[in-house]
Structure formats: structure tokens, C-alpha cells
Amino acid sequence: MKRLAALTLLLVCAAAPRAGAAPARRVALVVAGDAGARSPLFDAVSRGLAGRDAVTRFVLRPDEDADPIAKGRLLADLQERDLIVPVGDAASRFVTDELGGTPIFFVGAGVVAGESLRERATGGVFSFSVSALLDAAKALKLRRLGVAYTPGYEPILDLIRTGAAARGLRVTGRRIAAPKELGPAARDLLDREQAVWVLGDPLLARGAGFEYLRERSLSRAVPLISTDPGAVARGALLGYEPPQGALAAVAVAGVSRRLDRRASSPGERLQSAPAGGTVLVNAVLARKWGLPPGPEPGWRRVR
Questions:
Q1: What is the pLDDT of residues 230-260, one digit of tens each?
Q2: Is there a contact between 116 and 96 (Cβ–Cβ < 8 Å)?
Q3: Are 75 and 159 contained in the same domain?
Q4: DSSP reduced 3-state for 125
Q5: Are 257 and 294 part of one and the same domain?
Q6: Per-residue pLDDT tens for 79-90?
Q7: Are residues 70 and 183 in the same domain?
């Protein structure tokens, strides 16, 4: 369970329904911390949702000495909403971890627990662009890609396979459902492929699993592609920062589909971010491994 000390109720926009109109749906727009509340993404999503439904904005404030009573009241309040929209990584982790099974549409998360993604009530748009990262891999002449993924990420793996095929790239996926499977999967992918895309739970993408993959990636000179932009500074070769305005537009459209109860395909339930953002490249590793010089337009060197 995540710890939460306080909750700030920023704004309640109650859209009064017109006579004869359907009651406004109650939406909880959730973000973590003051920095998150001031972010362009949170502002753009909030403005995009204003005027059509009852939107309540919440700011989560983590603290070591969390008040379990306040936290319980918060979770009970959120569970009463028609849809919970966490914006950013921290808010998305909190909501999906604490409120599994409730209607959720996360926005701009790089890593979400695969168990949450397997629930049909959970949808959202990630912070990474499959197409942009595949274009970067092709530009760096990385044509054989391994994908280490955890259960729940199959829809994103399908996007990677489809996009890779269109670019003449080959993809091999290895499912990692338990910690004991990480070692054999990592050895297989690192021995056979030119790069490994890390796609999965926080333990794999950010924690001990990522550290394990990074050390073996460096020893074998096989680059890692990460869904977490911060991982580029920690030893991954490629990451991605999305265009905030375009990401917000995709998110608002996805939220609208959920609120209107329009049927969506599996590919619409979980989406990658739009292209047009910034590809992050670890220039030190690119030089060390003799990859094409880059960066291409729209890339940024890290380290």
C-alpha cells in the first residue's frame, strides 16, 4: 500500500446538467505534488475536460507519517467517481496500486504494474512513443530487438511488433512472469539481439530487475531501450519525453470515449504516446559501442 499524508482538493467544477440532459459524470483528476499540479500536462488535461462533466482535482502529498484515516477517506471518495484520471507517473502508480478494479484512465505514465493493465477497467496513454523509439532504433541500425516484458503489457508488445515489421526490424518477445524467469530471459535476449526493450512492472523497469539488465547490457555491449526517461542517465541507451500538448489531446479523447461508454478496441484501451516529442540518447554509450553518431532532429544527448 502506498503512503499518503494529506490530500489537497484543488478545485471542484460541477457542471450542472441541462434540463433533460444526462447527469454529469463525476471525474477525479489526480496528480502528485505541487510540481505535478503546475505541470503543463495536468493543466492541458484539466482544460480539455472542463465544461462537460463534474471534474474534481486532487493533489496527493506523500509523507512518511501518513494518516490512515485520511487515506481511507480519500480512497473511499475516489471509488465513488465514475472515472479516475491520474496524471503522471506517481499519481498513476498510486491509483492503480490502491484502486484496482475501479474505472481508471492514466495519463503520461512510463511504468504501470502489469497486473493493473490486465484489468479491463484500467486504460490509459503511456508517456513513451513506440513509433518514435522504433525510428530511433532503426536510425542507430539496431534491427534485431528483444522485448523483455511482464504480463499485462501484451497490447504494447503488439504495437512494437507491428511498428517494427513496418520498418524492417525483427522483434523477439520474452515474457517474465516471476523473478526466477528474469535471468534466463535476459541471457537469451542479450545473447541473440542487438538491443533489448525493457517493458514491464516497476521491479523490471526501475528496480532490481533493471539493475540486473543494465549490468549485463553493459558487459555484453547490448543497448537497453527504456520506457522510463530517467533510465537513460542510469545506463539505458534510449528513452523518450512526450510532447505535452499532443499527449493531453490523446488523453482527453480517451477519457471522452470512456465517459461516453463507446466501445474501444484493445489497442485503444492502452496506448503509446504520440510521436513528435524528444528522443533521449545516452551519447556516452552510443560512442562507446560505435553506433551511428546522431543525434537526429528531435533527439537530445544525455550524459
A1: 999 999 999 999 999 999 999 999 998 888 8
A2: yes
A3: no
A4: strand
A5: no
A6: 999 999 999 999
A7: no
